[in-house]
Amino acid sequence: MSTRWYPIWQKGNPQLRVFLPNFWMKIVKPEHRQPKHVVTFNVSMEMTVHDVRNYLRQIYNLPVIDVRTRIALGPTEADKTQGYIKKADDYKLAYVIFPRDVKFEFPDIFPSDSETKKQLREDEKPLEESKGTFRKFLSRSKNRRGLPGWYSI
Amino acid sequence: MSFYSFLNVAKRVTISCPHLCRRILLNNHVKEINVGKHLFSSKPEDVTTKLMGFFDNKKNWGENEVKHGRNWTLPELRIKSNQDLHKLWFVLLKERNMLLTMEHECKRDHRLFPSPERLDKVKISMENLETVVKERNKAYHELETGETGQRPEEVRPNLFQIPERYRSKEYPLPAHLNKDFTVRKLLVKRRIFRDFLRKYREQDLIAKKRARNRDRNEVIHLLKRNPDLDKQMLQEKYPTVDIPMLEKKDKFRGHYVPKL
Q1: pLDDT tens digits, residue range A18-68?
Q2: What region, left, alpha or beta, does residue B149 occupy, with left being phi > 0 and alpha being psi -120 to 50 degrees?
């Protein structure tokens, strides 16, 4: 079932089918170490174990062995400036178990290698340029300190 | 519209009927997504590559910007067949899952999610697709039954007798046999509800009165500053204010000698 409204099922009627499911699922990095054939998903709150299994089997064509779900409590924390308590929404986690020989590791999307640093340096290029021009401007009045910058030809 | 073209439309529309749609689903789609033995015999590497479908293309990892297209528009979707729309829905669904995964990972790592407008575009596309499917469903139902076939809704009083939009749904029991429903109705007669409603209406009245006063003061203020203002226009803008009555009052007079 999706979150949409469907007529009540009566005995003898054909089984209800979802044509345009609007559930979402996302893979999240597991908090603790877990076997390599287990993948943690963050799923829509309305999804059941059967929904998760069907979703992965039929849309992603994955060999799901077993699914376990739990509802995780959203973190509660005090606001840093005002001090009032705020709580994030709860979310549903699904632990999906694949065949034992499957080895899936959550990829390292932001490796802290030189490439990203190079990228950062590129972002800072205009800033460096403007710094250089300002230094050049200052150097004009190097030998006559205290005079304003406009006091020249 | 010629007879044949009309037939063509009808043919296309019938597919959106649920029971026929199922047949199409069985004919075309389930073949690809069959949950059979072959699925469990798939290689472990294949499973990993399929799971990587939840992540963006590797060359986009750590980028500041990802190039992408625009969303699907309504006219584009209207000329597609139902099967195409059905396939496109799942493409969009997978894309949204991918984007959500990447967004979540970026947030976890305190990074900026590159090109977040992609999520909006997918959302708009999905909304448009649903609109088109609904249009076809409505057209089919109106042709066959004379009704829209949409979920009926009406404005009716809720538990506290406050008018509310109610979208009807099916119950296993009719209303007069449903004990819970009758009990709910009885509750309304109780005194606490009456008192609550009186106070609720009072709040509403106070709000309306304040709005009226605000309008009146606004008009006074305007006329004080601009005595030659078009009064008809003012009356149209503030219909609750009685302008001829206001003119008699002292408040209305500006700080100048009146022209005689």
Answers
A1: 889 999 999 999 999 999 999 999 999 999 999 999 999 999 999 999 999
A2: left
How far is the C-alpha of A35 from the C-alpha of B174, rounded, in Å? Answer: 51
Q: What are phi and psi of A54, to 5 degrees?
A: -65, -40
The per-residue pLDDT for range A136-148, each reduced to its tens digit, is 888 877 787 777 7
Residue of B nearest to A123 (CA): B64
* Closest CB to B51 among A28, A39, A101: A39
Task: Let me know the angle formed at the C-alpha of B154 by B152 and B157, rounded to the nearest 5 degrees.
Answer: 140
* ipTM at complex level: 0.76
CA dist B206 to A129, B200, B213, B215, Å?
62, 10, 11, 14
> Where is A140: in which H helix or E strand?
none
Instruction: Write down the domain spans for chain B.
Output: 3-144, 153-187, 191-247
CB B44 to CB A102 under 8 A? yes
Q: What residues in chain A have their Cβ under 8 A from chain B's Cβ atoms?
A: 5, 7-8, 14, 17, 19-22, 24-29, 39, 42, 57-63, 98-99, 101-104, 107, 109-111, 115-116, 119, 123
**CATH 3.30.70.330 correct for A1-107:** yes
* pLDDT (tens digit per residue) in B24-43: 333 344 444 444 444 556 78
